[in-house]
User: What shape does this take?
Amino acid sequence: MNRSVAPEIKDKLEFHLPTIKQFQLNNGLRVIFVKKDNLPIVQMSLIVNAGSRFDPANKSGLSYLTSMLIDEGAGEYSALELDNEIESLGSIFGVSTDSDLIYMNMLSIKDKFERSLELLSTVYASPLFTDEDFEREKRKLLTKIVRNYDEPSYIASNNFRNLVYNITPYAHPILGTSQEVETVTNDEVKQFYKNTFLPQNSYLIVVGNITQSELEEKLNKYFNSTSFESNNTDNISSPIENDSNIYFIHKDGAAQSEIRVGHLSNKRTDADYFPKVIMNSILGGQFSSRLNLNLREDKGFTYGVSSGYYYNKYFGYFQIATSVDSKNTGETLAEINKEINGLKQNISIEEINFAKSFLVKRFPSMFETYTQIANNLTSLVHYSLDKNYFNNYIQNVERCTKEEIEKAAQKNIVTDKMIYVVVGNADEVLPQLSSISDSNVIELDKFGNKV
Amino acid sequence: MNEILNIEYQKHTLQNGLEVVLYKDNSLPIVSVNIWYKVGSANEIEGKTGFAHLFEHMMFQGSKHVPKEMHFRYIEEAGGNLNGSTSMDRTNYYETVPSNSLELALWLESDRMGFLLDALTQEKLDNQKDVVMNERRQRYDNQPYGLAWELIFSNLFPKDHPYHWPTIGWMEDIEKFELDDVKKFFKTYYSPNNASLVIGGDIEYDETLELVKNYFDEIPSANSIPEIQVPQTGLKENKKIIHHDNVQLSKLYITWETTKLYEKDDAALDILADILTGSKNGRLFKSLVFEKQIAQDVVSFQYSGNLTGMFIIMATAKPGVELDKIKNEILKELKQIEEEGITIAELERSQNAITSSFIYSLQNLNSLVDQINNYNTNLGEPNSFLFDLKRMTNLNIDDVSGMTIKYLNKPFVELQIVPKEVEVESE
Assistant: This one.
C-alpha cells in the first residue's frame, strides 16, 4: 500500500438537477415547485417583498414588528391556539426578515401537508393584529434591540452596513432603532401589512413529496383570496459613498476586536458574477483561502476569517469579517490590506483551478435537503436569475478565464473606497490604528453616532 | 411512516479493533465519512484542561504523508466539506465528499490515525494554541453571557470531577501545553480500538469494506485505555453565584444534576423541557414571556453525557425585572407540575413534534451519519432511531411529571449574570 500519493479521484459523477416548475394562481401568486420524494416531507416558503427597506421614513423596525406579529393569532385562532395547532401537527413554522423580504417557512410531514398549508394561508391572509399582542411584541422587540447591542459582532456588522449603504433604505438596522420603534402604532403595522402582503407581491416556494396537480388543487382551495392593487413603491436611491476611513467603536472589557472591511458593490445580476465568485473564493471564500491561511494558519491571530459579496435586490457589498485578539488588531488590518493588494497584482492559474474545482464539485451537495433547495429557489426568483441558472452553473464557473478573474479583482475590490470598522477596547487598540494606511480614524458610539 | 427510521447497515470489526459501520443511500452522489474517538474533556485532569479540543485542532495540521494545510486543501479541492468537534465524552471528525472521492477521505483519515506524530512540530502546536485561545475569546470571553457554561459546570461538579471544566479549557492551561502532551495523548487515545468509523451515502458495501481494510488494517491497536475516575457528586444545599458581565439585561440560570445519556429518565427530562419551554404554549414561556411579560425569553433542556447529566432552565429578564421574581415564578410552575401533573394533551403535542423531528433529521447525510455513529458508540447498535424515538413516545404523563419530584426538588446551582454597572441607554 503506497500512502505517499493521494488516491486519484475516479470518473466524473452523474448528477441530475431537480426539475423546477413555475406557475401562477388566478389571484397573481407565483408558485415555484420542485418534487422531491426521498422522504415524506414538504417544505413551503412564502416570501413577501416586505423587508426592512420598505420601512417608512423614521419608522425603522416596522417591517420587523409586522413579521413578529404575523403569527400572533390568525383567523379563528388566538396566538397560543395557532401555535398549538401547528405543533400538534408536528409541523415547524418560523418567520424571518431581512432587508428585502419577510419569509414564512413551514416544514411538515407529507400526511399533514394540507392542514399545514391551510394554516399557512390563514397566517398570510388573516392575521389578527390585536392591540394586546401588538403591545407585547413591541416591548419584546425593544428589549431585543437592547440585547443585540451587547453583541460586539452585531455592533460591527450593523455599523458596517450603515456606513456602506449610507442614506438608503438598506442602511438602518433590520430590527430598527429603539427611538423609532417606540413611535410605531398598531395601525401602522396593519397598514404596512395591507400594502405589502399581496399575492402579486409574494412568491410561494414548495419542495416536497407531492405531485404538481395535488399542489395546485390545494393551493386553489386555500389561496383563493381576492387580489388588491399594490401601492408599494419600489424606488431606491443610490447610496452616498462614505470616504475610506477607519471607524472605531469602543467596547468596555472587549476580549477581542471585531473587524469588518469592505465597500459598496454591484448587483447580484452583474455580468461578472462568476469571475467574482472565483476571485473571492481565493481571497476568503474557502477555508484554504489566502486570508485564512495567513491570519489563522500562519499567524494565529484569529479563529477564522472570511470574505464575501453579499447581495440585496438592488445593491451588494464586499465584506471581510473576522475577530482577532486585541494586541494584533493593527497588524491584522495591515495584513488584510496586503492580501487585498496582492490579489489585485497576482492570481495564479493553480489557485484558479483549485477554486473552480471547489465550486464545481460541491455543486450537487447544494441540493441535498428540502430546505437547501427551497433556499436556492428563493435566490432564483428574488434576484430574477435566468431560469436555467442552475443548469448552466457548472459551465459558467468552468469557462471563466484568468483574464476575467483578474479583471473582476481590479473592478470589484476598490482600495480607496475601503471602509474599516473595528469594535474593541480603545486603550489597547486605538494606538495601533493610527499607523494603518492613509485612512483617518473616526470614533463612533455603538449606534453609529460620532463621539 | 416510522419504517423509514429503521435503517439497514453493515457492521464489521477489524482485527485491530476498529468498528466499521456502512450505510448505503444512493439518492445523491455524495458520501459522508465520520469517525468518533472515545475521548473528550472528561479524560483530562485539573491543570491540563482543554487538551482534547486542542488536540482535535492538531489533527488538521497534516500527518506523515499529508503536508500542513493539505488536509483541508485535498477535501476542498474535491468539493467536500469537513470539520471536527469535541465534547465532554468524545471527539468526532467528518468529511462529506462527492462519492468518487471516498478513497481520498479514507486515505486522509487513516493517515492521521496512524501517522500523526511523524509530522508534528513545535511551530504547528504554537500556531494552533494561538488559534484556540482566539477561539476561546471569540466564543466565550467576548460573548455576552459567554462564561455561563463554565460557571455552571464548575459549581455543579466538584474540583476533581471530569465535568468540572469547560471543553475548551481554562486559558492558562491552553497556554501551557507542550509537544510531549500531544504525543502522550495521541498514543493513549487515538487508536483504532478506541474509535468507531461510519461511512454513509452513495457506496457499495463490499467495495467500501475492501477500501477500509486497505487503509486501516495495518494501524496497530493500543494498550488498554485508562478508565475515568468519577468522584461522588451531589450538592448538599443550593449554591448561588452572581457574575458581573458586559450586558444590559440580567439573566438567570438554574441547574440541577440529573441522569446520564440514554437512561430512562433522560428521555422523560427531554419531554419535560419541551413541555416547559418548547413552544409558546410551554408552561414557562406562557407564564413568563406571554402573560406576565417579566422575561424576554426562557429556555430549558436536559444536557446529558456518559457520566451524568443536568437539567437547565434559563431566562433573560425584561429591563427592570428582578431575577428573584423570575426564579419564584419558575419554581411555582414546577411545583404545580409536581402537585397536579401534566396533561395528556401536552404530552401528545410534545411527542408529535418529536416524532416529526426524527423524520426531518434524516435530510442531511452528514448529521444522519453522525447520529448513526452516536448510536453505535453509545448503544452498540447503529440502527437505534426507533429505539431512541420510542424512549420518548412510550412515556406516560406520570413518567414526565415525576421528574420534578425525583430531580428538581434537589439542591441546585443558581447563576445570575448581571450588568457590571447601571448604564443609561440612549441613542
About this structure: The longest helix of chain B spans residues 122-141. Chain B is about 40% helix and 20% strand. The CA atoms of residues 139 and 248 of chain B lie 19 Å apart.
